[in-house]
Specification:
- This protein is of the alpha/beta class.
- The protein has helices at residues 8-13, 65-74, 78-90, 140-160, 182-195, 208-215, 234-253, 270-282, 295-306, 363-375, 389-400, 406-431, 435-448; strands at residues 17-23, 28-35, 61-63, 95-101, 106-114, 127-128, 131-134, 166-173, 197-198, 262-266, 287-291, 311-314, 325-330, 347-350.
- It is built from 13 helices and 14 strands.
- The strands form 2 sheets. Strands 1, 2, 3, 4, 5, 6, 7, 8 and 9 form a 9-stranded mixed sheet that branches. The chain has a 5-stranded parallel sheet with strand order 12-11-10-13-14, with helices on one face.
- Helix 4 (140-160) links the parallel strand 7 and strand 8 (166-173).
- The relative contact order is 0.10.
- Bound molecules: 1,4-dihydronicotinamide adenine dinucleotide (NAI).
Length: 451
C-alpha cells in the first residue's frame, strides 16, 4: 500500500476504521480512528451470528480527534489528510467512513454527502447511492474525488425523484469480487450497514452481487439484481425522460403534441432503445434518427420499427450529436456537451438519460456551459433532474422488496417527473436562470436553507 493513503496508518497501527465527519453549519471537522474487529474475524456469518452493532473484538481501541490527527502526523501524511478533509468541506459532505480489512485486502470508502432527507424515513437506510469497485493500485485521491462527487450527485437525484433518502456512494478498492466468497460478501454488507445506506451495484461490481447478498441473508439494502422483482431499470428511466420531455415541449410550444417532430437518439442500450421505442410508439409522424457504435444493434432496432411503419433511420455515431432535429436525446455517455460541441449543435431541445451530459468538473462549470446552450436557444436542463427514474426504481425495490411493483414505480414517475420539470422550467424563466442553474438552486435551498 502507498504511504499517502488514508488506510496506511490504520494498517501500521492495527486499526480498522477511520471516520471523517464535517458539520457545514459549524465548520467543525471531527476525526475518529478505531479498532472494531480482530484481523481473523470471520465475516461469512454476518447477520446470522452477529450484526452491525455487535462488539467484534475484546481488544477494541478508540482514538479521539487529537490522537487520530497525531497518528497521521506520525506517518508524515497530515497534508494528505487535510487535502481529503478540504474536499469534504468543499462539497459540504457529511463525511467519509473508511473501513480497512487487512486480511481480505479491502479498502472501503463510504462517501456520505447528506442525510437530511432520510433521517426520518423510518427505515434503516437513510442514504442511497451505488457501490463501485476500483482496482487496488488506482490513485486513492482520484477515487475519493470521484466518490464524493457521485455521492453529492446522488443527493440531488434523490431530491429530484422526491425520495426520502440522502445521497452517498461506496467506492471499494479491492480485487474482483468472487461471488462465492462469503467472507468478502459479509464484510461488504457490514460496511454498507455501518453507513446506513441502500445501494445497487455500479461499475466494477456484478449485478449478481445483489442476489448473493439477499439469498445469503447478508443484506436487503442491495437492490437491482438479475433475480430482482422489477427487471431492468432502462425502460422506466426512458419513460421518465420521455414524460418529462413532453413538459419541455409544452413549455416551448404551448402544447405537448409532438406530432411530426424529429428526434436523434444517441445510444441504443438499455435506456436508448426504450427511448427510441417510446418516441416511435407515441409520437405521430415522427422522424427518428438513431446511432450506436454497435451497428448490429442499430440494424436490429431500425428493422424492428420500420417493419411497424415508423420513419426510423440510422445516423453515424460521429454525426448524431449535430443532427438537425427538434430533439437530441443523449442516451450513451456523459461529457458530450462542451465548449467545442455546443456551437455545432443543430437541435432545439436536448433531452436524454445520459449522466453528466455537460462536460464539467464542477457545478459552476456546468452552469457556465448551460448558459452557452441557452444563448443558442437550446432548451436543456441538467440530466439528473429528469433521468432519476432508475433511482426511483431502486428505491421501490428497497422499500417493498419482493413485493415491489412496476405499476407503482410508473405511477410515481408520472406523479413526480413531469410536474418537477414543468416547475423547474417555469421557475428558471421567472428567475432569469438557466434550467440547470435553477435545478441546483432548488436543491441547495432545500439542503442548506433554514430548517
Ligand atoms: P448501456 O450501456 O446499456 O447503453 C449505452 C449504449 O451506448 C450502448 O449500446 C453503446 O454501444 C452505446 N454507445 C457507446 N458509445 C457510443 C457513441 N459514441 N455513440 C453512440 N452510441 C454509443 O447504458 P444504459 O443503461 O442505456 O445508460 C445510458 C446512459 O444513461 C448512461 O449515461 C447511463 O449512465 C445513463 N443512465 C442509465 C440509467 C439506467 O437505469 N440504465 C439510469 C440513469 C442514467
Amino acid at each position: 500500500m502507498e504511504k499517502r493513503s488514508l488506510f496506511y496508518p490504520l494498517d501500521q497501527e492495527g486499526l480498522t476504521t477511520l471516520r471523517i465527519q464535517y458539520d457545514w453549519k459549524t465548520g467543525n471537522v471531527f476525526l475518529q480512528a478505531s479498532k472494531d474487529w480482530d484481523e481473523d474475524f470471520d465475516w461469512s456469518r454476518y447477520n446470522h451470528d452477529f450484526y452491525v452493532e455487535s462488539i467484534k473484538t475484546r481488544t477494541a481501541r478508540l482514538l479521539n480527534d487529537v490522537e487520530t490527527r497525531a497518528m497521521y502526523e506520525k506517518y508524515g501524511i497530515s497534508d494528505y489528510l487535510e487535502e481529503v478533509i478540504d474536499l469534504v468541506r468543499q462539497g459540504k459532505h457529511f463525511g467519509i467512513d473508511c473501513f480497512y480489512n487487512k486480511r481480505l485486502d479491502i479498502r472501503y470508502l463510504g462517501n456520505m454527502h447528506n442525510r437530511k432527507r432520510g433521517i426520518n424515513n423510518t427505515r434503516h437506510g437513510v442514504m442511497k447511492g451505488g457501490i463501485r469497485r476500483h482496482e487496488k493500485d488506482e490513485n486513492e485521491l482520484e477515487v475519493i474525488i470521484d466518490g464524493l462527487n457521485l455521492a453529492r450527485a446522488m443527493t440531488f437525484k434523490n431530491i429530484a425523484g422526491e425520495l426520502p433518502v440522502g445521497g452517498c456512494k461506496s467506492c471499494v478498492m479491492m480485487d474482483e469480487l468472487d461471488l462465492n466468497n462469503m467472507d468478502v460478501c459479509g464484510f461488504l454488507a457490514f460496511c454498507l450497514d455501518e453507513m446506513r445506506c441502500s445501494t445497487g451495484p455500479d461499475m466494477g461490481f456484478p449485478t449478481e452481487m445483489t442476489d448473493v447478498m439477499k439469498d445469503n441473508g447478508f443484506s436487503v439494502q442491495y437492490t437491482c439484481g438479475p433475480n430482482g422483482p422489477l427487471g431492468s431499470s432502462g425502460p422506466p428511466t426512458a419513460y421518465g425522460v420521455f414524460v418529462a420531455l413532453k413538459e419541455a415541449v409544452r413549455f416551448l410550444n404551448g402544447s405537448d403534441d409532438m406530432t411530426g417532430m424529429s428526434f436523434a437518439v444517441q445510444g441504443l442500450g438499455e435506456v436508448g432503445a426504450s427511448m427510441a421505442g417510446l418516441i416511435a410508439d407515441n409520437v405521430k409522424d415522427a422522424k427518428i434518427y438513431v446511432a450506436d457504435i454497435n451497428s448490429a444493434r442499430v440494424d436490429e432496432i431500425v428493422a424492428k420499427y420500420r417493419a411497424k411503419g415508423v420513419d426510423m433511420e440510422a445516423i453515424a455515431p460521429e454525426d448524431v450529436l449535430f443532427a438537425k432535429v427538434d430533439v437530441l436525446s443523449p442516451c450513451a455517455m456523459g461529457g458530450i456537451l462542451s465548449e467545442e460541441t455546443i456551437p455545432k449543435l443543430n437541435c432545439k431541445i436536448i433531452w436524454g438519460s445520459a449522466n453528466n451530459q455537460i462536460k464539467a468538473s464542477s457545478v459552476e462549470e456546468e452552469c457556465r456551459l448551460s448558459k452557452l446552450l441557452a444563448e443558442r436557444n437550446i432548451l436543456f436542463q441538467t440530466d439528473w433532474w429528469h433521468n432519476t427514474a432508475g433511482v426511483m426504481f431502486g428505491y421501490e425495490e428497497y422499500k417493498y422488496q419482493k413485493d415491489a411493483s412496476l405499476k407503482r414505480t410508473y405511477d410515481d414517475i408520472d406523479r413526480v417527473l413531469p410536474k418537477n420539470t414543468w416547475l423547474n422550467l417555469n421557475k428558471a424563466k421567472e428567475l432569469g436562470l438557466t434550467p440547470t442553474e435553477c435545478a441546483y438552486k432548488t436543491v441547495m435551498d432545500e439542503l442548506y436553507g433554514d430548517d
